Amino acid sequence: MRTKIDTALWERREQYAFFTKFTEPFFGITVQVDCTMAYKKAKDNGDSFFLTYLYDALRATNEVEAFRYRIVDNKVYLYEEVHASPTINRPNGTFGFAYMNYYTDREIFFTEAKKEIESV
């Protein structure tokens, strides 16, 4: 579910107007993150580190309103919830694209994500 943002009244309207003039109005960063403890915890619990970090990233993303904004047909929407579309390695060295719904319940997320991985 999503809610259309009235950009004329939006507190971010100046930034939105500025960046929409760019050919590619997106940016990204790359940082090093020490995941040693998270990796160890996942492995100690017999969990996939990939699904652990994906779940934790989705949980954090869904907790921050600014990460749930999307531009669709030049209109800004706030989504109630966002999901993931990761690449999945295949045994033959290729990869496929998956779509994984976010569930607040970690166990449900893991169960459904594993099904999606198998289908890819």
Roughly how much helix do the residues carry, as a percent range? Answer: 25-40%
Largest sheet: 3 strands, antiparallel
Q: Strands of the largest sheet, in order across it?
A: 1-3-2
Q: Would you tell me the structural class of the helices and strands?
A: alpha+beta
Strand content: 15-25%
Could you tell me the mean pLDDT?
95
Low-confidence stretches: none
Number of distinct beta strands = 5
Number of helices: 4
In sequence order, what are the helices and strands, one letter per element? Answer: EHHHEEEEH
Principal-axes geometry comes out as: elongated
Radius of gyration: 17 Å
Q: Between the first and last Cα atoms, what is the distance in angstroms? A: 26 Å
Explain this structure to me?
The chain has 120 residues and is of the alpha+beta class. The chain is 38% helix and 15% strand. The protein has helices at residues 13-19, 36-44, 49-63, 106-119; strands at 2-4, 69-72, 75-79, 87-89, 95-97. It has a 3-stranded antiparallel β-sheet, with no helix packed on it. It is elongated.
